[in-house]
Amino acid sequence: MHELSIAESILDIAATEAATHRAAAVTAIKIRLGDFTGVVREALEFAFEIARQGTIAASATLEIERVPLRTRCPACEMPGASGYCFICERCGTPLEILSGREMQLESIEMAEEEEVTWIASP
Amino acid sequence: MDRVSVVTDIRQANQNAARENRTLFDKHGSCVINLMSAPGAGKTSVLEATIREIAPSYKVAVIEGDLETTFDSDRIRALGVEAHQITTGSVCHLDARMVAKALASFPTDGVDLLVIENVGNLVCPAEFNLGEDLRVMVYSVVEGAEKPKKYPLMFHTSDVVLLNKIDLLPYSGVALSELLRNVVEVNPRAAIFPISCRTGQGLEGWIAWLMNELKSRRSEALSISKT
Questions:
Q1: B12-204 has CATH 3.90.1150.10 classification
Q2: SS (H, E, C) chain A
Q3: Are B39 and B45 contacting, i.e. CB atoms less than 8 angstroms apart?
Q4: Chain A closest CA to B45's CA: distance in Å?
Q5: Is this model's pTM higher than 0.80 or not?
Q6: Is residue A88 predicted with pLDDT exceeding 80?
Q7: Which of A74, B84, B167, B224 is deepest in the core (most CB within 10 A)?
């Protein structure tokens, strides 16, 4: 369950940004998550729900954009097939990874002081 | 509402801590191995066998990561090698900050080879850089031939894959050729050594590889200090 450490890292970065922008709350966080990372999407969503409690992002949503694993041969430029084979089918060269290792924060939505008051008392 | 674009690697905090560890290791001239595997694959047995061969020529130290107990560090100390135990409680992997904290009370200056034995886990440790030079993975052949494809990340990010317990192959129903093919497909760059810590079979290949690595690092360090 290292997804909890990942969720905490996301919230740490969000809290720093919120402080920089003097925001009252973080309302949404968007991340890009590669298929070839050791992170399970559902586990991360669950961990995020727990980790956000009591933070400036307590009511924030987490949007996860999935990034597929893409590979290519650096020698003959043949794209790699799907599945975890990192050898070029045509020339036998080890493939390079083009995408799929991403674990990246993309954007954060924040609310100003008055907006929070408005949300709190509709 | 304000939407702010913040393109940041989520692993950044760990990467920064890993870089600081790396600077310290370089200053001390230590070669650092991050030793990883599933629970029970034989990390500590590999380590014992490696220490027996390496320790006469090089100064070795070990940092042990476990959820609980000091069994592993006790086994290492019994060989006359200094060991520091990190018990993570419930955390399933070591991260760079835990290692940095251990290094504060476990000085490694003068250590040629520092082995950090990670928590037994086939998934999580692969995502956390500790500042190591080499990732060495131990895989027990009885775990099956298909695991490299099921848990590809650790295999893919390792520099060395030690296929342990080959003495059990006749009882396991696992074809070594199929396992080797899967490991090579997931990581064509890895050095792969089928070994048995119990019988000693194949260990000489791994030890020779490591000795060579340590030797070339030492001569590299000497040539840098001369210039």
A1: no
A2: CCHHHHHHHHHHHHHHHHHHCCCCEEEEEEEEEECCCCCCHHHHHHHHHHHCCCCCCCCCEEEEEEECCEEECCCCCCECCCCCCCECCCCCCECEEEECCCEEEEEEEEECHHHHHHHHCC
A3: no
A4: 26
A5: yes
A6: yes
A7: B84
Interface residues of chain A, partner chain B, Cβ below 8 Å: 1-2, 5-6, 9-10, 12-13, 17, 21, 23, 27-28, 31, 36-39, 83-87, 94, 103-112, 115
> pLDDT band for position B1 (50/70/90)?
low
**pLDDT category, A117, cuts 50, 70, 90?**
low
Distance CA B12, CA B34 (A): 19
Q: Kindly report, residue by residue over B48-90, the tens digit of the pLDDT.
A: 999 999 999 999 999 999 888 888 889 999 999 999 999 888 7
| Chain segment B176-216, per-residue pLDDT in tens | 999 999 999 999 999 999 999 999 999 999 999 999 999 98
Token representation of residue B47: 């380590």
Percentage above 70 pLDDT, chain B? 98
- DSSP E strands in chain B: the ranges are 2-9, 31-36, 60-66, 82-87, 113-117, 134-140, 160-164, 191-194
Chain B contacts of A12, Cβ < 8 Å?
Answer: 13
3-state secondary structure of B119: coil
In this prediction, residues B139-154 reach a mean pLDDT of 96
Q: How many CB pairs under 8 A join A and B?
A: 96
Q: Do B208 and B54 meet the contact criterion of CB atoms below 8 Å apart?
A: no
Domains and CATH numbers, chain A: 3-69+100-120 (3.30.2320.50)
Give SS3 for B27.
Answer: helix
ipTM value = 0.84
- Domain range summary for chain B, segments of one domain joined by +: 12-204
Q: What is the pLDDT of residue A122?
A: 46
DSSP state of B166: G
- B32 beta partners: B114
* The pLDDT of residue A1: 62
How many other CB atoms sit within 10 Å of the CB of residue A6?
A: 26
